[in-house]
Amino acid sequence: MTSTTLTVRLPAELKDRLGELAERTRRTKSFLAGEAIGDYVERELAIVAGIERGLDDMKAERVVPHDKAMRRIRKTIDNATKTK
Prior knowledge:
Layout: H1 12-25, H2 29-59, H3 66-82
């Protein structure tokens, strides 16, 4: 994978804590920052994709009204409780 440089402004305290983590884990600050940003981006992209799927479902009318969904959930819980 090809890497590139990105400049990021951090509060001084966060930079210091990143430096402490780097020392304690024997990793570079750049490595740790890259890992953190990568994890964040993947998580956020998954959230956005889920929201977009939900919006597509709404547009295609593949949704269940809240009250109907809650009735189904309560019925499932009641049935599970009765079988115990």
